[in-house]
Amino acid sequence: MSLGHEKLTVDATVRTLQSVPTASNYAVGKCETASIRFRTDGTDPATATGVLIAANENFRIYGQDVLNQIKFVEATSTDAVINVSYGTANNGMHGVIVG
């Protein structure tokens, strides 16, 4: 069941997801136009620090806690766009899967 959608521009400023529905514990997304980096430990990512999501790569985020604390930043000097669809998953996972 889809609970919402968000389109987010990721640039040199660290970004968080802005439209996470209260009932959502899962998101699927795609990184478009340029690579980005993310962190889920509360620390800001940087262009050379954090997990890389390449341009045109898909990702899945599990757990409302992760949805609410994940942070993104561009990995190059090019702004990226990510499109994220929110829903629910009942698998008990928490974390991020890239690819």
Task: State the gist of this model.
This protein has 99 residues and is mostly beta strands. The chain has one helix and nine strands; from the N terminus they run ββββββαβββ.
Describe the protein.
The chain is mainly β. It has one helix at residues 64-69; strands spanning 2-10, 15-16, 26-32, 36-39, 51-53, 58-62, 71-74, 80-87, 95-98. The protein has a 5-stranded antiparallel beta sheet with strand order 1-8-3-6-9. The protein has a 4-stranded antiparallel beta sheet with strand order 2-7-4-5, with no helix packed on it. The longest helix has 6 residues, at 64-69. The protein is globular and about 35 Å long.
What keyword list fits this structure?
mainly beta; 4-stranded antiparallel β-sheet; 99 residues; 6% helix
Question: Biggest sheet, strands in spatial order?
Answer: 1-8-3-6-9
Q: Beta-strand percentage?
A: over 45%
Global outline? globular
Helices, by number, come to: 1
Q: Which class best fits the helix and strand makeup?
A: mainly beta
Helical fraction: under 10%
In round numbers, the mean pLDDT is 92
Unreliable stretches covering 5 or more consecutive residues: none
Order of helices and strands: EEEEEEHEEE
Total DSSP E strands: 9
N- to C-terminal distance: 22 Å
Radius of gyration, in angstroms, nearest whole number: 12 Å
Instruction: Describe the largest sheet.
Output: 5 strands, antiparallel
